[in-house]
Design brief:
It contains 53 helices and 16 strands. It is α+β, with helices and mostly antiparallel strands. Strands 1, 2, 3, 4 and 5 form a five-stranded antiparallel beta sheet that branches. Strands 9-8-7-6-10 form a five-stranded antiparallel beta sheet.
């Protein structure tokens, strides 16, 4: 699993006959499997599911348990993403997986893979911890990232089924058809199949291709290169996807010995070791020693290599020593950070972005810069600008490409008396740099060169060496083009210089990667061919003179130049000659290493297996075991790949890690960054512990940034940050990288305003801590200002105040200007936090300190902020004076913008404190001033606020047309600059205007729709839910078929959002609203479903009052309708009444019984109506409300009347009359009592036959009707037939 999961060794990959019966219904993979039997032989289980479940849980580090509230918040966020999963799909795409579905209730994702590379990358990210960090980016909002304590204490733990992941990996591996296996045991084919089948050693690597169904596969041995058939039962696929990828992309042979296996320790060692048995050398470069002899290790011993370099403590000789002949417990083991053999090697990776440190610090200072010392601030504490201190516009630059290109030129030291005359030190000049940039690069032909080899060429045969103008030609260097004879004395200087026994510092330029000796030691030749001829002539004289070291070094230089021209066979001859001449001498270890490694690279290129087996292993030892060795050839990568293959063969993690580091360093120096990433990820998995992982993490973050993978770039720095919290510093360039990638990650709409994502806060805080340790006060203050900016952006001024207070202390230490700027920022933050008193405490001393200065602008800035603070304190007159002083200072210096701001603040003060005319005049003058300015985003956003204030003044003065125009102008400016917050303010005002001031349902809906779109862009789910609810109501009020359908859509969308947010009361009301709409649309089959869902949601919320309300409203749906009115009884009687009695909600119970009575009367269920009316009458006497009692008894009388129980009806009517107030309040009230008297008269005259009472009731009714002037009622009374 990307360097993390393995196929269990004990599991049998082939099933013998009789051990397991195949399934009768096997699953067939059409790509590669033809039968059930073949599937078993191809290592695959049956019924493979291609999908993988990824589960997560949010845990607290300190408590070591699940953080319940955060887990629930993450689950709700996931629920919200189920239907809008584009963001999740993009995240998993970056993680090399494909999203199938989201299962929010289980906190799970279902993902799948299509290629082996996808599963390799994903498993790597999973084990590096990047998947969990990326899920934090997805599931948590800015409130989480601004809470530093919560961020440090929280981690997301992800889990997958490892065995199922292995199964998917094997399936994809076989599906691709070409993969690599390891031999489980030695295999010798029978005599009749010799030549057809492969002979294998245990652990030998084989490249396998899928063939037709059968028990044998076609394979190629990576040791011998032979092809043949091999039994499936003898093979095991390599379990690590990285190994599969590497062997496929870096093909070559392996150096596994067939005679004996390596038996060394599994730890890198150094110091001294003890020989376990004697050894007689087979080659001259090997060291002889006796059993028990103490051997000093030169460099290190690395497990997996057959050789290391050692020195006999008895004889002092140096040579190669077989690892199997020493005691692994006798030397000092190295720490777990086995990738780097020295701190210099580790720092070479950490230095990847160090050359940009100054540039990144400069960027941080630019991002922190503010114009608060020169530009007045507008009073917008409750509007669009309330969340920020305005910072100057900053675009995030990219970190330039690092680590590539040729290395700097090494130079020879200034000649001393011991150096031969004629070899002067050369200052590296512009000519060399220009040549390195634009020099000709044409490849020459060679009989031994292939197209691949030609790509190694770094120059052409017509290479021109620079000829410095400020240096004279060396007197003792001979120019062969003059035709002079080759005399020995002409070569004496170079031979004397090169024949030094052992290594000297001035030889460094001979072995380095950049061929710096061409410009330092040998600079008098204008043509490379001329120089080669001179070296060849020198070689001949060195050979004649038996000058061993000069001869060897000249052969080495000639070999390097031949490789440069891709003349590999010629270079091989030179290198072999040099090694032969040295005859096992190791005094110049740099020369020996360069010779062996260059020759090994040529053997690998030319595939000379028969010649290079031992030399390859020794070259690998020199490459891997010597620390701080500089590369001398581009094609050294082939030797590194050979060493890595050997590490894979023997299963040595230290050797594999070492080879990965060498590959990273070499590829970075070659500028081949796109090839570095797999090796860096593998090395990070193998290292796993700081400080090694810290160095590799810096490389990974740099590479992810170059590949435009912002999630991974930020995640790698965050992982590094966790280590930094344990005592390691976070480099400034990585903070810059985080700021850059979080902007990409969240798609901030206005990057030109220098907005910073809250996601960057943890890294900014760590960088701040690092600057505190380094006492870098300037950068420390810049980071404080940036952090305060983030808090203000997200309307958290308290957090901003904390960092601005720290910035003020640092500013006082740095200088007056920094102190003044920090004081203003702090005062502004206090104002945004509605702490005007504390702002005054900062500003008043600051104003006193400015009295002796001559800066009118600075005094004006302080006066303006002082006015804002005084206005916040309610000291209106003093605030007005401060604004006027600020206005005067701006007029004195001719600053129109500051004049406009001061005038606008005066207008706002007048709007709140004095009559409307002054405010209107001030604001109109402000608009005129802004019109004089050149349009910019900042001034236009200030003008938006002025238009809103002016519209408020005009609307309150009943100038509706002009006020509407101002609102619309404000919205237009917001749309022009795509500024969401200003659009939001203007849209809110327009919605209020069309709903309350000048009602217009269609226009109100239009602006509510725009408001909804803004909420979606701002990702404010709570606002979006409320707006959908309002839109649903607006559409329902239109009461058309189309508007009802749109209303239903809005209500259902709001329902989903309220569920996501966990607002059960809102969700319950949305369920009810949807049910009501289905009733209006006559979709009766869905009505009960939604109403029951509403009630169940309310009951689960454990809010009985909400449940009571919803029971009643659910009944009202039918009660107020025209269909199925009887359904209301169940909700009233079975649901609402018991809850009302339990909650002792007497008035609600009374209201429900009244509704039940009315409903039964309309349904002519008078017996039931009598029951409910009686209960209502009893309850009404308890409430103490005479009007409620009157209504209850009137309904009871109506029921009795309907049941022909006239005497009871008369009693109830008389009760209602007894509740009549002594003075009638309105004609309607008089009409009601007239009707009651009329009803009593009819009861007496017609039903009760009481002629004595009838004239009295009639006269009362007549007097009542005369009072109400109701002629219709009078006619009715007069037309009654006498009895």
């Amino acid at each position: 699993m990307g360097g993390c999961f393995c196929i269990p060794r004990e599991r049998s990959l082939t099933r013998g006959p009789g051990k397991e019966t195949p399934s009768k219904d096997p699953t067939i993979l059409s790509e590669c499997i033809a039968s059930s039997e073949y599937k078993e032989k191809c290592f695959l289980p049956q019924n493979m599911n291609p999908d993988l479940t990824l589960s997560f849980c949010v845990k607290s580090r300190s408590r070591r348990c699940v953080n319940g509230p955060l887990q629930e918040a993450a689950r709700r966020r996931l629920w919200a993403l189920e239907n809008e999963d584009q963001e999740v799909r993009m995240l998993f795409k970056d993680l090399s997986a494909r999203l199938v579905s989201i299962q929010s209730q289980r906190s799970q994702f279902l993902i799948t893979f299509k290629t082996m590379e996808e599963i390799w990358k994903f498993s790597t990210y999973l084990n590096l911890g990047y998947v969990s960090v990326c899920l934090e980016h997805l599931l948590f909002d800015h409130k989480y990232w601004l809470n530093c304590i919560l961020v440090e204490d929280t981690e997301i733990q992800v889990s997958v089924d490892d065995k199922h992941l292995e199964t998917i990996y094997l399936g994809l591996l076989i599906q691709e058809g070409h993969f690599f296996c390891r031999a489980l045991c030695s295999v010798t084919p029978p005599a009749e199949k010799e030549g057809e089948c492969l002979t294998l050693c245990k652990n030998e690597l084989i490249s396998v291709k899928m063939a037709e169904a059968g028990s044998e596969l076609e394979g190629v041995s990576l040791v011998t290169g032979q092809r043949g058939l091999v039994l499936v039962s003898a093979l095991e696929p390599l379990p690590l996807p990285f190994h599969q990828w590497f062997l496929k992309n870096y093909p070559g042979s392996c150096g596994l010995s067939r005679k004996r296996d390596w038996t060394g320790s599994y730890q890198i060692g150094r110091g001294r070791c003890k020989a376990t048995k004697s050894y007689e050398p087979e080659e001259k470069d090997e060291l002889s020693f006796y059993q028990g002899e103490s051997i000093e290790i030169i460099g290190f011993v690395i497990p997996g290599l057959r050789w290391f370099i050692g020195k006999s403590t008895s004889s002092g000789q140096v040579g190669f020593i077989p690892t199997r002949n020493i005691d692994p417990d006798s030397y000092s083991p190295m720490s777990r950070n086995f990738a780097f053999l020295s701190d210099e090697e580790r720092c070479s990776l950490l230095a990847l972005g160090s050359d940009k440190q100054t540039e990144c610090c400069s960027f941080l200072h630019t991002l922190a810069r503010t114009d608060i010392t020169s530009v007045y601030r507008l009073n917008t504490f409750k509007s669009l600008q309330s969340s920020r201190i305005r910072y100057t516009s900053v675009l995030l630059p990219r970190v330039a490409t690092l680590g590539g290109g040729a290395q700097g030129c090494s130079t020879l030291p200034v000649l001393t008396a011991s150096q031969p005359e004629g070899f002067k030190e050369v200052r590296p000049g512009r000519a060399w740099e220009e040549h390195q940039a634009v020099g000709s690069r044409q490849s020459s032909s060679s009989e031994d060169s292939s197209p691949e080899e030609e790509l190694l060429s770094a120059t052409s045969d017509s290479y021109h060496l620079p000829e410095p103008d400020d240096l004279d030609d060396p007197e003792l260097l001979m120019d062969l083009s003059t035709g002079q004879e080759e005399e020995a004395e002409n070569f004496t200087p170079i031979l004397a210089f090169l024949d030094h026994e052992g290594y000297a510092d001035h030889f460094k330029s001979l072995y380095d990667f950049s061929f710096s000796f061409l410009t330092s030691s040998f600079y008098s030749f204008s043509e490379e061919d001329e120089f080669v001829a001179y070296l060849e002539a020198s070689r001949k004289w060195a050979k004649k003179s038996h000058m061993t070291w000069a001869h060897a070094r000249l052969c080495f230089l000639l070999g390097r130049l031949s490789v440069r021209k891709v003349k590999l066979s010629q270079a091989r001859v030179y290198f072999e000659e040099a090694i032969h001449i040295l005859n096992g001498a190791f005094e110049d270890l740099s020369l020996v290493a360069a010779l062996y490694i260059n020759l090994a690279a040529i053997y690998l290129k030319q595939r000379l297996r028969h010649k290079g087996s031992t030399l390859l292993e020794k070259a690998g030892a020199l490459l891997a075991c010597l620390p701080d060795r500089e590369s001398s050839a581009k094609h050294e990568l082939d030797v590194v790949a050979y060493v890595l293959r050997q590490g894979i063969v023997v299963g040595s993690s230290p050797l594999e890690a070492r080879a990965c580091f060498l590959a990273i360093r070499l590829l970075l120096s070659l500028g081949r960054h796109e090839e570095v990433l797999p090796f860096a990820e593998r090395l990070q998995l193998l290292s796993g512990h700081p400080p090694a992982s810290e160095a590799v993490a810096s490389v990974l973050s740099f590479l992810y940034d170059k590949k435009y993978l912002p999630h991974l770039a930020v995640a790698s720095v965050q992982q590094h940050g966790i280590q930094s919290a344990q005592g390691m510093s976070l480099p400034i360039w990585q903070v810059h990288l985080v700021l850059q990638n979080t902007t990409k990650l969240l798609g901030i709409p206005s990057p030109g305003w220098g907005e910073v994502s809250a996601l960057a806060c943890p890294m900014l805080r760590q960088a701040l801590a690092a600057c505190e340790e380094l006492a870098d006060r300037s950068t420390q203050r810049a980071l404080c200002l940036i952090l305060s900016k983030v808090y203000l952006q997200h309307r958290s001024p308290d957090g901003a105040i904390r960092y601005l207070s720290q910035a003020l202390v640092l500013g006082q230490l740095l200088g007056e200007q920094e102190s003044f700027e920090s004081s203003l920022c702090l005062a502004w933050a206090y104002l945004l936090a509605s702490q005007a008193k504390k702002a005054l405490d900062v500003l008043e001393p600051l104003l006193c300190s400015l009295k002796e200065t001559e800066s009118l602008t600075q005094r004006g800035v302080v006066y303006n902020l002082l006015g804002l603070a005084l206005q916040g304190e309610g000291r209106v007159n003093r605030a007005a004076k401060s604004y006027l002083r600020a206005l005067n200072r701006a007029q004195e210096v001719g600053d129109v913008r500051n004049q406009a701001v001061a005038m606008a603040n005066l207008g706002h003060l007048s709007l709140k404190s004095w009559p409307q005319n002054p405010a209107r005049n001030y604001l109109l003058q402000t608009v005129r001033l802004y019109c004089e300015l050149q349009a910019s985003k900042e001034t236009d956003m200030e003008l938006v606020q002025v238009f809103l204030w002016l519209a408020q003044v005009l609307v309150s003065g009943h100038q509706l047309t002009h006020g509407l125009l101002c609102y619309e102008m404000a919205l237009l400016f917001g749309l022009r600059h795509r500024h969401l917050k200003s659009q939001l303010q203007a849209t809110k005002s327009l919605c209020h205007f069309y709903s309350s001031v000048s009602p217009n349902p269609e226009a109100c809906i239009t602006y509510h729709e725009h408001w909804l779109a803004l909420a979606q862009q701002l990702r404010d789910r709570e606002m979006e839910g409320r707006l959908l609810e309002s839109l649903g109501q607006l559409y329902r009020n239109l009461n058309t078929a189309r508007s009802l359908r749109r209303s239903l859509t809005c209500i259902k969308e709001s329902l989903r959002i309220f569920i996501d947010l966990g607002e059960r009361d809102k969700a319950a009301e949305a369920w009810l609203g949807a049910g009501r709409l289905h009733y209006l649309m006559q979709e009766d089959e869905l009505v009960e479903l939604y109403l029951q869902a509403a009630i169940q949601t309310a009951l689960k919320s454990e809010e009985p009052m909400l449940a009571l309300k919803l029971y009643e409203e659910a009944g009202d749906v039918f009660f107020n309708g025209t269909r199925h009115r009887h359904h209301a009884i169940e909700y009233y009687r079975a649901g609402a009444v018991p809850l009302a009695r339990r909650l002792k909600a007497v008035r609600t119970e009374l209201r429900i019984f009244n509704k039940l009575t009315e409903l039964q009367i309309s349904l002519e269920g008078f017996e039931k109506a009598l029951e409910f009316a009686t209960l209502a009458a009893r309850l009404s006497t308890v409430t103490g409300d005479r009007r409620q009692e009157l209504v209850a008894f009137h309904r009871l009388a109506t029921v009795y009347y309907s049941l022909h129980m006239y005497e009871m009806a008369e009693d109830c009517y008389l009760k209602t009359l007894s509740l009549c107030p002594p003075w009638l309040q309105s004609p309607k009230e008089a009409l009601y009592y007239a009707k009651v008297y009329y009803r009593l008269g009819r009861l007496t005259f017609c039903q009760l036959k009481c002629l004595l009472c009838c004239p009295g009731w009639s006269s009362v009714v007549q007097s009542g009707l005369t009072t109400t002037s109701n002629s219709g009622a009078q006619v009715i009374l007069q037309c009654q037939p006498p009895e």
